[in-house]
Design goal:
mainly beta; Jelly Rolls; globular; homodimer; about 120 residues; 7-stranded antiparallel beta sheet; 1 helix
């Protein structure tokens, strides 16, 4: 089929590593990426772009410098560009992210978690 | 809270009309829109942009001129720009769409279904 549906659960079943986003779709110059997360990520911001998180399964928090947003499956949030944030998940959480192709996962923070090349899955 | 989660079910509970998209979020110059659909939409294409459909609840089909893609909750599809398509849902289906702000729901087709101004909800 030339235009095939993408099944989130099927894609999540293909990998187990955490904090390791995979691209599942491209719309114009934006990527749709999935990731399994658990624990605390690094504080960072994306100076050039907003970023969308959609929770597919589980629960997560996004810490901001002045508040914390709690998200569960069936919820999304837009992190505005330039706003420092830190994703956190007590238990493993499956998320979908939408952001421009080439956006670094650690934004302006860099460090060990940085993925220079995000693979398709 | 300055950065609040958006709950899909909560947003869907706020309206009942079909084929009447509502904006729930903006990321850069893209809108995230939800809609309840049932029946057949019109054949149309978007000459300037790809379009993403994510099924939140229920099942739908997207007819292309040479194939049909069947989608259910937990699945997404990218309709490439310029490609004619027709959304179809036998039973009411709840969907999330991602496309550039200002994209017309009927694309190049126009007609009675066209919404010039999509409201926020």
């Amino acid at each position: 089929m030339p235009y095939a549906p993408i099944n989130f659960n099927e894609k999540f079943s293909l990998f187990s590593e955490q904090w390791s986003p995979k691209i599942i779709a491209q719309m114009n110059d934006y990527h749709f990426k999935i990731a399994k997360i658990q624990g605390e990520f690094v504080w960072h911001s994306h100076p050039e772009t907003d970023e969308v998180f959609i929770v597919i399964d589980g629960e997560m928090e996004i810490a901001f410098r002045d508040s914390v947003a709690a998200l569960k499956a069936g919820e999304m949030i837009v992190v505005p560009k330039g706003v420092e944030h830190k994703p956190i998940a007590a238990q493993e959480c499956q998320i979908l992210m939408v952001e421009p192709a080439g956006t670094l996962n650690t934004g302006d923070a860099g460090g060990d978690h940085t993925l220079e090349a995000v693979p398709w899955i």
